[in-house]
Amino acid sequence: MFLNGGHIANTFGKVTIYDHIELTQWGKSLEIVQVLGLQIFFGLQANRDEMNEDKWMTSVLKLEMEMSELEAFKGISLFHHVFLRKR
What we know:
With 87 residues, the protein is of the alpha+beta class. It is 31% helix and 29% strand. The strands form two sheets. Strands 1-2 form a two-stranded antiparallel sheet. A two-stranded antiparallel sheet has the order 3-4.
């Protein structure tokens, strides 16, 4: 488990790292439906002015969405969005 369940600090403030399975233990009948890796490429752009352009944002969003379900890219993404549902 990353950081052994610990905390990290970044530009978003204090971030708590949870194991995906740990999330299912918060409710008696939760199961993981899907995990997406997000912010894979967005932060790689060094030119902050270009990041504000609609054309660039649209192309990166499309790329992020296409790669978000691929395991190799989930492993390097900044965030995971974990979708849960009741069994």
